[in-house]
Design goal:
CATH architecture of chain A: Up-down Bundle
Number of helices of chain A: 7
Shape of chain A: elongated
CATH topology of chain A: Methane Monooxygenase Hydroxylase, Chain G, domain 1
CATH class of chain A: Mainly Alpha
CATH superfamily of chain A: Phosphate transport system protein phou homolog 2, domain 2
Oligomer: homodimer
Number of domains of chain A: 1
Order of helices and strands of chain A: HHHHHHH
Number of strands of chain A: 0
């Protein structure tokens, strides 16, 4: 093969990889918006906004299937190795997490619709919307770290998930107290509990995204490792 | 390359693919046992069994990481195409679901440990152990369909997930009634609710496994499609 041919193919390949990264970020952007809208709908009891989240879930699913196909076809046609291959396998995993974040946003929106049919005292909503903004923030940061392939930020965000868990547990404890004090609030409190649970899961998925970033940049699988071990591995890299 | 060399490589490759399938089934077997033990521990209030489930979760995680590495190295070294590539990308996704099923079994076991510290009335456990056995059954069937690459069974099992959801919803409704009738039962009922939720998720993950089987056998991504559409696609294949 002439050098110019092989250069041409390699440029095309680069373009395909770039294209797929752009699509993952677009999917991430949509999913982030879904989370933001879901949290907003819950906070403001905005059924219309919640219905929009439910409707757009299909778009998220379609994006996942399309990126998935593109990844598989790149592997088949380009037979990538090393870093390029890691990028693609990491994307294959990352879009599953993005899709599930979309599912959780969808669940939160459904809780908004269920809550819309009930009495609405003011309390409980402040904490959950604080948690919602926090979770949305780490998702945005994770996507941002992916765009910049920044492993130091990825590690920082993965660590932050611990704080999400602490906030989540405090909300659950508080809701249990409300339920015990006033059994009439049980149904409503449960809706809020499921919504909080979804937010906590979104935190977990965001953490997974960060672990994929570390994997694709330095080639080490850091899932299931403690933060200390992760830090050590990153320092060595 | 001499024909005998290429035959030799292809035999080696076949052996590697077989080996990876065996490992996925071993991981599936372990995860299935974790689910069985978790459900049993809940039903019998067996803290020791529950602790065993929590301990073994690390093994599941290790298996995921090992299979993951093996898949990536096969793609890099063997540059598989078509069916072989589909098998590997499907496995990459399937082991994520298996690992999360392991996580859910772990969560159920933790609920057993939490329940062990509370009063234990007999009611509520029958329904949840029926659901547990049902979920365990569809997980086992899904793994079995994977071993035999049986798409008809895969479709049947994916359909069955709808019944799991119905059973799950009935349990949740029942638990809400108990909570309202007797607020002292709230903490205990919530533990059972989270356990039921974990079982429902295991059903979802088992359904995902079935969708990967269909994908790897006929090359069509049937996720997010209705049962009717799935049936149509399988009939045509």
């Amino acid at each position: 093969m002439a050098i110019s041919d092989s250069q041409h193919i390699s440029q095309e390949f680069e373009k395909e990889l770039q294209d797929i990264r752009t699509k993952v970020l677009a999917m991430g952007g949509l999913v982030e918006q879904q989370v933001a809208d879901a949290v907003q709908s819950l906070k403001e009891a905005d059924s219309e906004l919640a219905q929009g989240v439910v409707r757009k879930d299909k778009e998220v699913n379609k994006m996942e299937v399309a990126i998935d196909e593109e990844c598989t076809s790149i592997i088949a046609l380009r037979q990538p190795t090393a870093g390029d291959l890691r990028l693609i396998t990491a994307i294959l995993k990352a879009i599953t997490d993005l899709e599930r974040i979309g599912d959780e946003a969808n669940s939160i929106a459904k809780r908004t619709l269920s809550l819309a049919e009930q009495d609405r005292p003011k309390k409980n909503y402040r904490e959950i919307s604080v948690l919602g903004n926090h979770v949305r923030g780490i998702l945005r940061d994770a996507l941002d770290a992916f765009a910049r392939m920044d492993i130091d930020d990825a590690l920082k965000i993965a660590k932050e998930d611990r704080n999400i868990d602490i906030e989540y547990e405090a909300i659950i404890r508080q809701l249990i107290t409300y339920m015990m004090e006033d059994p009439r609030s049980i149904t409503r409190s449960l809706d809020l509990m499921w919504a909080a649970r979804s937010l906590e899961r979104i935190g977990d998925h965001s953490k997974n995204l960060c672990e994929y970033i570390i994997y694709l940049v330095i080639g080490k699988d850091v899932r299931h490792l403690s933060t200390k071990k992760k830090e050590k591995i990153i320092k060595k890299s």
